[in-house]
Design brief:
By secondary structure, the protein is of the alpha+beta class. The chain has helices spanning 17-23, 37-48, 107-113, 134-140, 143-165, 178-184; strands at residues 3-5, 30-31, 50-52, 58-59, 70-76, 87-92, 97-102, 125-131, 169-170, 191-201.
């Protein structure tokens, strides 16, 4: 499938780390207007982006033994992101690019798979945090499963804080039907861990 190059991440000093931590809250009420590609670029880079190719392909999140079991997939609804068609995409961190996996708008099915959580329908996109545990357990055995969960938590926190920096809202959704999500995203070796809908908070004072 085709690859789409994301715009280079834009670094901002608008908020300090302390301010983003103070303003981080769970958002479940989205304005349905479209996000920009730059916003998606920054958020994906925060969650699993490449920092340095010279130092063990270092990413924005720590990974046990640099095994990097976490994958980010993005479900984009129709008119959810400007200049990006609806569908399912996989983030390719080494290239800071998206690989299109499907051109289907799965917005309604996503909401149903998350036990009819309606707010997901209005998010511009939903990020699926998934893992291929074997990348880590091959080295660390059963203990590696814990390391995978630790890495996933770091990725989710990074995404949450980057959303705040850009005036967006998100929440970590853990209530979903694993089988339904695996089918929607056509996951083979990957295990779904969490879903993070991204959008503009409807409450104007959300981050005031």
């Amino acid at each position: 499938m085709e690859k789409i190059q994301l715009p280079y991440r834009s670094l901002s000093n608008k908020l300090s780390l302390n301010e983003t931590l103070q303003k981080r809250v769970s958002c479940r009420n989205f304005d349905p207007r479209a996000l920009f590609m730059q916003q998606l670029s920054n958020i994906l880079w925060a969650g699993q982006g490449l920092i340095s190719k010279q130092h063990d392909m270092r990413h924005t999140v720590p990974s046990a033994g640099a095994t990097y079991p976490i994958e980010l997939l993005v479900a984009v609804r129709k008119d959810g992101i400007e200049e990006l068609d609806p569908g399912i995409y996989q983030y390719i961190s080494k290239e800071h690019a998206l690989k299109r996996l499907s051109n289907k708008d799965l917005n309604e099915q996503m909401s149903r798979a998350c036990f009819n959580q309606e707010f997901i329908r209005k998010a511009g996109a939903s990020i699926l945090i998934a893992s291929e545990d074997s990348r880590t357990t091959r080295r660390y055995g059963d203990r590696g499963e814990r390391y995978v969960d630790m890495e996933a938590g770091a990725a989710m926190q990074n995404i949450s804080l980057e959303a705040v920096e850009m005036g967006l809202g998100t929440v970590i959704v853990g209530a979903f039907d694993d089988g339904a999500v695996k089918e929607l995203f056509d996951l083979q070796e990957l295990k779904p861990l969490g879903i993070m809908p991204i959008g503009y908070p409807r409450d104007k004072a959300f981050y005031a």
